[in-house]
Amino acid sequence: MSAHLSNGRVNLNILREAARKELREFLDKCAGSKAIVWDEYLTGPFGLIAQYSLLKEHEVEKMFTLKGGRLPAADVKNIIFFVRPRLELMDIIAENVISEDKMHSPRDFHILFVPRRSMLCEQRLKEQGVLGSFINIDEYILDLIPYDGDLLSMESEGAFRECYLESDQTSLYHTAKGLMTLQALYGTIPQIFGKGECARHVANMMLRMKREFAGSQTQILPVFDSLLLLDRNIDLLTPLATQLTYEGLIDEVYGITNGYAKLPPEKFAAQKKQGEVGKDLPTEPKKMQLNSAEELYAEIRDKNFNAIGAALSKKAKIISAAFEERHNAKTVGEIKQFVSQLPHMQAARSSLANHTSIAELIKDITSEKNSLYSFSFHVQLTTLHSSSLPSVLISSEAFFDNLTVEQEFMTGVDTDKVNTYIEDSIAQKDPLIKILRLVCMQSVCNNGLKQKILDYYKREILQTYGYEHMLTLNNLEKTGLLKPQTSTRNNYPTIRKTLKLWMEDANEQNPNDISYVYSGYAPLSIRLTQVLARPGWRSIEEVLKMLPGPHFEERQQLPAGLHKKRQQGENRTTLVFFLGGVTYAEVAALRFLSQMEDGGTEYIIATTKLINGTSWIKSLMDRPEAP
Amino acid sequence: MAFITANWNPLGEAFYRKIELYEMGWSLRDGLKECLVAAAPYGGPIALLRQPQRPSSSARPQLEIYSSSGANMASFPWKSGPVRQLGWTVCDDLLCIQEDGTVLIYDLFGAFKRHFSMGNEVVQNQVLEAKVFHSPYGTGVAIVTGASRFTLATNIDDLKLRRLPEVPGLQGAPSCWVVLTQDRQTKVLLANGVDLYILDNTSCTPVTPPGLSPQACSIVNMAVSFSYKYLALFTDSGHLWMGSANLKDKLSEVDTKVRTPPKQMVWCRRPKSQQPSVVIMWDRLLLVAGECTDTIQYTLDEESVCVAELDGVRIIGGSRHELLQEVPSACQDIFKIASMAPGALLLEAHKEYEKSSQKADEYLREIKEQSVLGEAVRQCVEAAGYEHEPETQKTLLRAASFGKCFLSNYPPEPFVSMCRDLKVLNSVREYTVGIPLTHTQYKQMTVQVLIDRLVYRKLYPLAIEICRYLKTPEYQGVSRVLKHWACCKVQQKEEPDESIAHAVSVKLGEAAGISYSEIAARAYECGRTELAIKLLEFEPRSGEQVPLLLKMKRSQLALSKAIESGDTDLVYTVVTYLKNEMNRGDFFMTLRNQPVALSLYRQFCKHQEQDTLKDLFNQDDDHQELGNFYVKASYKEKKLEARLSLLQSAVDEYNKAKNEFAAKATEEEKKLLRFQRRLDEEKGEALLGLSLQETLHALLTSNFHKQAEQLYRDFRVPDKRYWWLKLTALAEKDDWEEMEKFAKSKKSPIGYLVCCLYNLYTMLFIQLAT
Lengths: 627, 770
Known about the structure:
- The complex is a heterodimer of chains A (627) and B (770).
- Helices cover 45% and strands 12% of the residues of chain A.
- Chain A contains 24 helices and 15 strands.
- The longest helix of chain A is centred in the middle third of the chain and has 35 residues, at 332-366.
- The radius of gyration of chain A is 26 Å and the shape is globular.
- Chain B is α+β, with helices and mostly antiparallel strands and 770 residues long.
- The chains are: A alpha/beta (627), B alpha+beta (770).
- At the A-B interface, helix 5, helix 7, helix 8, helix 14 and helix 16 of A face helix 16, helix 18, helix 20, helix 22 and helix 23 of B.
């Protein structure tokens, strides 16, 4: 289940095993049969650590979702609540406990707080008069969860909102704690770089915690050479852009949560076994786990979507050639060898079929015709210049138009005017999030919008989508995604030019630069990472000053004898931590840098949450409850 | 060396030896006569309660505490009530059980720590007898009262009194009794005449030991082994019965031919005993009886006390302190006269080697021919551990080292660790320290506990030296000792705060993992708040500082420390505390100076206390947020009038915040709501809650063109959007006539498009029609 975690440069399975061990230890503390009551939010992240089989081995017989009222009947000795430390959840738990049937044989209650226990919550339970009913109150420190062989995520949805909108730095505290756990397992990280307020805060806490734990540190040869902490708000642009890698597009179109994507079932119907032909088409969405455990997926996920067709057909040829081998197998030995490879080949074939289906689905979606309107828009768009358009295989106009506007903004075309495409999209009431993504993008690329333009957009949005969105707009302004221009100087073009954020001739098939992940746009965050590795940030001081927050470098003293002696030609390992989320396209870009022959650095990526423009904007929206 | 076996006495197959540990340093005029004595196992301290020489009402007994070597540690007149029994806890605290059931606890230096009671009914009935016992749960106390009832407390640190059931026919105290720990349960075994009973929580069960000689009329003494596995009974007929503590098996029965009830009886065993035995003490006689019929008899020339140990019995007298134990088999093999065991040969070989005699080679050859050199080395190393005299230890270790030279693959660990262990043991056995631990006991008790014991005795330098010598991780070793030292230091009342804080920081500065907060907590307990605060400054873990600061009512400082730690839960804790402690105004002012705390509290209020949130914004004159607050509130309101008035409040706030856009937009919203209500009332539409765009769309599809026009003008909807809207609406309901009018009437920004579309659709329409 977890072999793919240990294939990378750093064996992340150690982290997973440590987490599993702790879970087992807690479960064994509650002797006898048990039922787990889940805070629904946690089931996804837990799935990355342990399957149901592990729980079952430790006598977990039933699982429920946490909700008010009375607990469902279950003939078990222990009821364990797995919850985040939230006050509202405490009230529900209290309700559960109070309404427990006293006549029945008494059940033992336990709470496991994830990722940390909270005095505030225990206080609330005390106020509700149920604190004494719990035999065990424990915490399960689950900060960084191994997501893939080179990827760690805290799966904390609200992190960006909390940090940048609500000034609640709880998730940063968890980040620092998580990094301490990581250092306990993989050794002290000698160098810490960072950019941004939150990065500074996390680094400070880490250094402080190191002092706190002084004396108890383990003697482990450091696996990571350096850590780079990056605030999401130094690069607000990247997540707003539509990701154009295969994995990125799956996420944009269907959404990937906790490593799983839910796909429409129609395309997968054909794969059923022959005996089941007569059955109806499946109606449940197909849930697919997407990670590097699947060989083909690991190979293609980071490619630009335009290169997927070729990659898939090449793979198809290899596989059918492999199956053809059977005709060449003459001797018993050869046949035996062929048969031994069969399971692997069959798995590859079904994997190929799956991904061909997904690629087709995405192509369908991205080329969905908007009949009447797209026709009219086309008329208008023909007047726009489109020199740097990617050779998108997706012929769809809606998708294509959206992309064109994005790319215009990123290249700095007409960012100081009201954009007709946005105007028209509002008029035809396209999804609000799409509009917000575009408006924010224009604002970011123009270092703020002129008051008049900003007010115009805002008014259009309020009139079309409802005045309740004023709160959302307010949030976007607070986080700097949307802002009035304060100075006449727009420094985005300088940043773009210095960091080469736009590459005219992005090669999508055989990329030679990270800009391929957005078909021309090189993510700012990744450029910063790239420059840091070579030639160093000193070369871009000016640009760094334009981005918000301080940049810094810290060194952590290693215990004597643990200094690494680097072999000739051995790569450095850098952990890049995105505070407030990272996109799959950015991850792809870092993987690309790791694989560059003369790169010299391999990257492990960590983040509070994997995001895309839609999920990100969504997390910032305020929806007042209707009466 | 020659007389190493001089003090050995055979008992069946095995040998017993009695070695002198110390000549006692105390000077007791009457020895241990008229004394209540308690000595702790594992070479622990000795407590004496001496009755006054001349019994008179004014004279008070004297309580004295000594180390095992007789060095005085405390001495003071006993001012409390009459004491029945003394005992030691596992943490080297002295328990004094009084007649009235009160148990007073003192530390090693005679400082009073606390007291507890064994129950109210005891006050009247009085304690007749009491016993202190140790179990995996800690130190326990058992008493029997004048009403012949037993009460148990299994762990004095987590006091739960259990009154045991009545024993049928028991009057006064039983003839003898012991406390047993079996199957995770603590029970009392008692004898009333010849009848034996087991008392547990719920019942009193009569039991009979298998094969007890029938001559006995009464069981006069009993003893249970250190591990609670074995039981010995002494009858009035002079028979000693030995068996398992569960009374299922009998080991043996010996006729001692002494009929006087013994003063004391204890088990003398060791792990892997060949001949477990019981030591029985009378006034002038000490008798060792095992499974065989023989016994060993020693004459006692002074009043003594026996202390059972894991691997023997210590005998403490007025002038001597001795250890009686079975000779371990490794020592027997090596030292038994004419032994040919590998170890004995190796020792002999080494002796000859020292003398530069060629016989060394002969002995070695003999061992090597049998290829038992490894075994020989092992025996010597093991035996060294069992020997008390450093000289003997050295001889054995040298022999082992010599033997090792002729072995290629012998693992060095056992030899090295034995050398280390012995160095530590010899240093604590030192007369001035006075902890006569054997190697077996040391291994059982672990270094950690030994360090603790040294710390209890305030032997900090030795403890630190041992930690350093054994390379104990700082965290568990040196730092821990230093912490205890500092905790002791802060109690020195005569020294000023400044100099103590300085001394502590200088000494602890370099040590890792020191918990300054624990030291500070101790200082605070002693009433030195200022010192505590000074010490807390050194604490690197803010999380540890906060609870204590709150306890000391330094809440402001606690808040800033909590913020420093970055732990938001900690900040919340302090904030909640402040909220309850302070009046609202002060509370808000405090928060205002701490933005991190303020924003966290805001988050809390947002979910829990909406009204407080409003007050917070009000205090800060944050009109923008107040505006947002009212907007949010308006959506929760069902009644339109209330909703409108909330929106008006929002408008006012937005105006104050100079946010024209928001004020205007909210005005517009109000206007729209009023319009929608009017139309809903007049025309029976259901528009309320729709956005402007949706309202327009609804109006256009329902043919309310005039009203739509009015809205379009009132809200200054951009032409382009309005045309699009109209076009869509008209197209949706196939209203081509209206569309034709619309296309031709005005020059719209999308006019030509409308025309195109109109033409296109008319064409299609015509085609379809034809």
